[in-house]
Amino acid sequence: MKKLAFLVVCLAFVATNALAEINTKKAEAFIEKLTTDGIEELVNSNASKAVKQEKFRKLFNEDLDLDFIGKFVLGRYWRTATPTQQKDFLDAYRELNIQTWSARFDEFKGKTFEFQNVTPSTSQDQVFVNTIVDMKNGQQPAKVVWRVRQKGETFKVVDIIIENVSLAISARNEYAGYIKANGLDALIKDLQTRAKKS
User: Fold this and answer.
1) Strands 165-166 and 142-151, how do they pair?
2) Which of 54, 84, 183, 192 has a CA positioned 20 to 30 A from the CA of residue 28?
3) Strand-pair partners of 64
């Protein structure tokens, strides 16, 4: 019994230290740069939709780990997918998200992200950077939470949660149901079609 208690204490100590290793100040600075120099500057520019999408593509490919997110949202189907299916899914998922979120963030035109705090995640290499956007006109501020993963000295966004709706979890639930009913190839084709229409 004493050995078991000692083991539990050791594991808790290791987990606490692993969380402490994440540089929360750098994670917050990373999101501040992404929102201020990236998203705010883009949505407030007078550039055309095509130019904005291209800039969002560069921004998202640099600052979001869309491969990591894509593998998560495909869940157990990732392990059974062929290499070709994996590549086609990630390509389609990346393109659709770049276009979807470039349009979604356009809703924040003329507004700024205000930083609240950084909270820990159950994943040892991740933290949540909490922000709000003052929507004005009597509307409640929009809550935007950024899930940030640190790998070495590199920080990447692995989820965006707007008003308690997770980009990653919503997609995972949607895709699981679609694959169950229609198969993975049908999902890939659907994502490709939706990306072309955006």
Assistant:
1) unpaired
2) 54
3) 157
Residue with tokens 């919503």: 170
CATH number where 131 lies: 3.10.450.710
Quote the pTM value.
0.82
Whole-Å CA distances, 161 to 1, 9, 14, 49, 125:
42, 33, 28, 24, 18
* Helix spans in 118-183 (H): 167-182
pLDDT in tens, 144-169: 999 999 999 999 999 999 999 998 99
Predicted pLDDT at 21 = 67
CA distance 144 to 133: 7
Residues of the chain with pLDDT under 50: 1-20
Asked if the structure places residue 19 within a domain, the reply is no
So what's the pLDDT on residue 20? 47
Question: Structural domain of residue 175, as residue ranges?
Answer: 24-197
d(CA 45, CA 36) in angstroms, rounded, equals 13
The C-alpha atoms of residue 195 and residue 188 are separated, in whole angstroms, by 11
Burial annotation 21-37 (CB, 10 A radius, 16+ → b, else e): ebebeebbebbeebbee
Does residue 149 belong to any structural domain of this protein? yes
| Residues 190 and 178 sit within 8 Å (Cβ to Cβ) | yes
| Domain count for the chain | 1
**What are the start-end ranges of the E strands in the chain?**
113-120, 126-133, 142-151, 154-162, 165-166
